[in-house]
Write a structure and sequence with these properties.
The protein is α+β, with helices and mostly antiparallel strands and 219 residues long. It is built from five helices and ten strands; from the N terminus they run ββαααααββββββββ. A hairpin with a 3-residue loop joins β1 and β2.
Amino acid sequence: MTERNGHMPEREALAAEYVLGTLSFAERLTAEALIESDVNFAQSVESWQERLSPLNEDYAEIVPPQGLDKRIEARLFPKAPPARKVGWLWGLLAGAAVAVAAFFVFVPPQAPPATVTATLTGEGQELVVAANYDPDQGELTVSRTAGPAAGEDQDYELWVIPEGETPISLGLLREETLRVPLDTLPAGATLAITLERAGGSPTGAPEGELIAAAVIGDQ
């Protein structure tokens, strides 16, 4: 098993950091999904909660300033600068080089990739969402199989979180089924649903309550 920071197994460290509250948003979603799908991980989280709970007695609760989380996320995950445009001549030459290389490279046939399925659930939540990814079609289908629709002036928003990266919105689950074009859905990625204001998160990052999630490959 790999180690996190060179001191303990990765999932054990993830459980400890989840209890300490030091994880990034994406890592926290992954941890919460593992709590639902992995009994051993859930027990590890409970163990760390019991082990670290005495620390809470030494500190009074402090309400953070409004908007602090947004400022922290902005510093941790700054927007990437726009890519520079490539001149038309360079683009033409690069395209020609790729075409020539493709002409001489033989790619052996491969077996078609398998369909990926997952069930998104959340602790204490009625919502259950089935996810099905067809790599041949490059399409992700999510269907609400149980639980209520989002309330008035609210929307369920679907996110994919590649392992170690920031959440990417895939759209709003307003109807019972949502189909999304998606190039790939690798093992270790997290699918998550949050309850956002109507129209979805205006910031491009999750803001509402996490309702359901699943880690691909841990079903």
